[in-house]
Amino acid sequence: EAQVTQNPRYLITVTGKKLTVTCSQNMNHEYMSWYRQDPGLGLRQIYYSMNVEVTDKGDVPEGYKVSRKEKRNFPLILESPSPNQTSLYFCASSSPRTYEQYFGPGTRLTVT
Amino acid sequence: QKEVEQNSGPLSVPEGAIASLNCTYSDRGSQSFFWYRQYSGKSPELIMSIYSNGDKEDGRFTAQLNKASQYVSLLIRDSQPSDSATYLCAVNEANPWGNSNYQLIWGAGTKLIIKP
Fold first, then answer.
1. pLDDT tens, A80-97?
2. How many other C-beta atoms can be found within 10 angstroms of the C-beta atom of residue B27?
3. Measured between CB atoms, does A99 come within 8 Å of chain B?
4. Do B102 and A100 touch (CB under 8 A)?
5. How far is A73 from chain B (nearest CA, A)?
6. How does B94-116 read in b/e, with b if 16+ C-beta sit within 10 Å?
7. A90/B50 Cα distance (integer angstroms)
8. List of residues 6+ apart from B13 with CB closer than 8 A
9. In a 3-state reduction of DSSP, which class is residue B82?
């Protein structure tokens, strides 16, 4: 089954404790992206990647890092999480011919 | 600033009626247009893609595109309570050479409520 997976689905952590949210897709897509979604603010892009070793900032990259060492994986790293990073996070990948984006199930992160 | 605008709603529609959702966009070079459905706390799910002017039908859903007016809409016929969700409009960004790229510009979404 073609899909985007994310782990963990839920995470409660404390300020300053480094964490990684994993994202993996099995559709051989080159493009992948991370979004956060907060009430009333819609989807905001954090980082995206056009291919292996090619990443770029989105609209809200501060406090986040990414890496793209393999085509299928695009982990999101919070080196020192803060309460304002409490949010619902989505990973997505995009079909090269149609530009349709497919989303993972989401990760609900709470930073206390 | 490239934008996609949607009425935030909520849009309340009786069960069995037609729900009409609208979206306008600012990037004249956009070539690909998408409607996503999102239930509360869940991820966006692609329901329609449209790439050329006119109508595209898929079951109870019809997407309509008018590039001259920079307008795209989604009609849901025979609305069901399960259609109650937030509908996101997304439009792909055109690069400086007028070609499509992977980046999507997202609307804030319209909340649709289907009343039994």
1. 999 999 999 999 999 888
2. 15
3. yes
4. no
5. 18
6. beeeeeebbbbbbbbbbbbebee
7. 23
8. B19, B79, B112, B113, B114, B115
9. helix
What is the predicted pLDDT for the residue at A97? 84
Min CA distance, B42 vs chain A (Å)? 7
* pLDDT surpasses 90 at B4: yes
| Coil/strand/helix, residue A97 | coil
Chain A / chain B CB contacts < 8 angstroms: 44
Res B98: pLDDT: 65
pLDDT above 80: residue B96? no
In sequence order, what DSSP letters do the residues of A64-91 get, joined into one string?
A: -EE--SSSSB--EEESS--GGG-EEEEE
Task: Let me know: does B85 contact B37? Beta carbons within 8 Å.
Answer: yes
| CA A68 – CA B74 distance, rounded (Å) | 36
Tokens representing A21 are 């949210």
| Residue spans of alpha helices (H) in chain B | none
Q: How far apart are CA A48 and CA A26, in angstroms?
A: 17
User: How many Å lie between the alpha carbon of A4 and the closest alpha carbon of chain B?
Assistant: 11
* Contact residues, A window 23-42, toward B, CB-based 8 Å cutoff: 31, 33, 41-42
Is any Cβ of chain B less than 8 angstroms from the Cβ of A74?
no
